[in-house]
Prior knowledge:
Elements: H1 3-16, H2 26-40, H3 45-73, H4 75-87, H5 92-108, H6 110-116, H7 130-159, H8 165-182, H9 194-218, H10 223-233, H11 243-253, E1 257-259, E2 263-265, H12 276-300
Helix pairs in contact: 1-4, 1-12, 2-8, 3-4, 3-8, 5-6, 5-7, 5-12, 7-8, 7-9, 7-11, 7-12, 8-9, 9-10, 9-11, 9-12, 10-11
Amino acid sequence: MNGLEVFALAVAFDILVGEPGAPVHPVVWIGKLISALRRSAPATRAGGLFVALAVILGTIAVGQALVFAASYIMPALGTLVAAYLLKSTFAVRCLLDTSRSIGQAIDDDIKSAKNMLPALVGRKTESLTPAQARSAVIESLSENYVDSVLSPIFYYLLFEPFGLGLEAALGFKAISTMDSMLGYKTAELKDLGYVPAHLDDLANFVPARLSIILIALSNPARAGKALAVALRDHAKTPSPNSGWPMSAAAGALGVRLDKPGYYVLMDEGAQPGYEDISRSLWLVGTTMALTILISMLVLAFT
C-alpha cells in the first residue's frame, strides 16, 4: 500500500467531503469506547492507564483489521479504507469552516457567537467582548492546527517508512480523544484522566514546537516576529504545548491574544479587529497547505 496515495486520498476526502456522519465516524466510535471504559474503570491513575492502553491498542487493532479485510477483498478497497481512516485523524476543512462561521457571527450577532464558541473553546463566553471573542477564535484555530492537523500527520510521516503510518496516526487520535474527554482536573477525573492528559502533552510536544516554524514560513514578512513572540510568550499558557502555536500566530498577525484571568500573548499587539479573523484563517490555512505540501514531498522521496 502506497503511503503517498493513502495520504493524498485522505487529504482530498477531507477537503472535498469534510467530516463523515457520526454513525460512521471512527472518532465517534473511539469516543464510545472511552465512555464505556470510563464507566467500568476505577477512578485511579491505574484505571486511567488501563483505559489508555485499551483505547490506543483497540483503535489500532480495529484499524488494522478493517484495512486487512478490505485489502483481502480488493487491494484498491484497502487503500480507500486506509485513506478514510487516516482522514478521520485530521480535520482541515472542519476547523477552518467552524472558525469562519463563528468569526462571522461575532460581527453579525455577538450573542449567537457566544453560544457557538464552546464548539471551539473551553472558557466561559458570557462576558467576552467582541475583541476577546475574536481572540478566542484565533487562539483555538492556531492551537487546534497542531492537535487536529499537524500532530496526526507528523506521526503518519514518522512511522510510514516502517509501514505503520496509519497505526501511528490512529494511536495519536485515540490519545487526543481521550484527553478531550478525560483530561480534566475535576474531582471525578483528576486521577482517571492523569495518564491520558500526560500522554497528550507528550504526543504534542514535538509538533507544537515544530508548528512555530511552519507558521512563520506562512507569513514571511513577519516570520521573525512570529518566532520571537513564540519564544518569549509560549510559557504563559497553562498547557506546555498550546502556547507555542498561539503565540506564533499572535506574532505573525500582530494581535494581542487574551484569555481573561489566565494569560495575554503579545501584550504589545492590537486588539483583534474585524479583519483579523479572516487574516488568521488565511495564516492557518496557508500553514495547513504548507504542511500538506511538505508531507507529500517527504512521502514521495522516502
